[in-house]
Amino acid sequence: MASVAQDFQPEPIADRPPGWMPIAMAATIVAAFSLQFLAGRSTFQSALPVHLHALTFMGWVAIFTVQATLGLRGKIDQHRKLGRLALGWLVLMIVMGFVITLRMVRAGHVPFFFRPQHFLVFDPLNVLVFTAMVLVAVSIRKRTDWHSRLQLGAMALLMGPAFGRLLPMPLLAPYAYEAAGAACALFPLIGMGIDLKRSGRVHPAWLVTLGVLAGMILLGNAITYSPLGDSLYQMATTGTPGAAVAGLEFGAPPSGGLITGR
To answer: Which of these, 148, 115, 79, 94, lies nearest to 242 by C-alpha position?
Structure first.
């Protein structure tokens, strides 16, 4: 990445990704989870860890949107101060991501269109890859062309759960995870189109994002269907109701309607 980055110099603000992109990403996430609530598939009666998980990840959406706006307006000091909070927030996201994934797998409450073992592997992997990409973006923050695009790319990687609430997931099984992952490429592809229209070339940061997304999906599948995936699932579910659920089989659709994140 460093060798490719040498081909680019810091961009003028006018050549950076447009300010509407982070707002559109945030709006997509809010719309997806609002639809989930209105459809009766989520409830405020969920347990405390579920609410903490929601506050943590929606908190990141707010931080991301404000950070992007501050950077676009040239308020670098405020952008950096909020950035320190954002780095600490990543730790909360990893913790709560793991907590809720384990909670759902151990309780046998994984949505029926996902294989439980795939869910156990892919969700934590998603959060870890997202975090790594954010940290890479921060490490090259002086290269504003790379920094801004990689931050948008990291956010795109995190949008799988949102697209999963907008897509007809039961109809997409057994490739529901792959479909939600493919949908995460939407905003990077839009960014590529904007770059191409402006300058006649695509910034390599978008290609890195798509490569990371594809690699994450392939790695998640490789671990899921390996002895390592079997061992992880056994360790996670031993002594819990989830142990009675076959890790690589799809569950039956619930008779009383799907309620996520219980």
So the answer is: 115
The span from the CA of 105 to the CA of 79, in Å, is 38
Indicate the residue type of 19: G
Distance CA 229, CA 218 (A): 14
SS (H, E, C) 227-240: HHHHHHHHHHHCCC
13-to-18, 24, 68, 70, 243 alpha-carbon distances in Å: 9, 19, 12, 12, 53
CA 20 → CA 69, 185, 211, distances in Å?
9, 17, 24
**What residues have CB less than 8 Å from 86, skipping those under 6 apart?**
60, 63, 64, 67, 134
Find, among 120, 98, 101, 106, the residue nearest to 232 by Cα: 120
Verdict on whether the full-model pTM lies above 0.85: yes
The tens digit of pLDDT for each residue in 135-164 reads 999 999 888 889 899 999 999 999 999 999
67-111 pLDDT tens trace: 888 877 777 777 788 878 888 999 999 999 999 999 999 999 999
Q: In terms of DSSP H, where are the helices of the chain?
A: 2-5, 20-38, 48-72, 76-107, 116-139, 144-157, 160-166, 169-172, 176-183, 186-199, 204-224, 227-237
Distance CA 113, CA 116 (A): 9
List phi, psi (to 5°) of 225: -100, 35
| CA 154 from centre of chain | 7
**d(C-alpha 89, C-alpha 234), whole Å:** 30
> Which residues, including other chains, have CB under 8 Å from residue 225's CB and lie 6 or more apart?
248
How many residues are recorded in the chain? 262
pLDDT in tens, 22-68: 999 999 999 998 888 777 777 777 788 888 999 999 999 999 999 88
